[in-house]
Amino acid sequence: xxxxxxxxxxELQAEVDKFVLSVQLLGEQGHRxxxxxLHARLFRHCRIAAALSHPERQRYDVANRYAAHYCHYxxxxxLKPRPSAAAVRELRRFYRLxxxxxxxxxxxxxxxx
Length: 113
Hints:
about 110 residues, mainly alpha, about 0% strand
């Protein structure tokens, strides 16, 4: 669509996609409650490469924190045990948000839940 996309937006979307696709794959492989340990592994037990510049590290940190909040919401509400139709609708809506819209959406979810 030739729309501008920020690096933060790309990194945030990549973090969300990685989590959701991993939950789906693990569920298809028969793992029960696959998102429990996965969330911690992807969002709490990760490290940002020390060689990155300060702005890059900040961008990855912000993307990780926001993705962690959003994926926690998805995990509790929509991904039990696999992505539901409601989850697919939510993820499509999230994907289409532009600019700071993704961050505002996650902030709104955090306020409600």
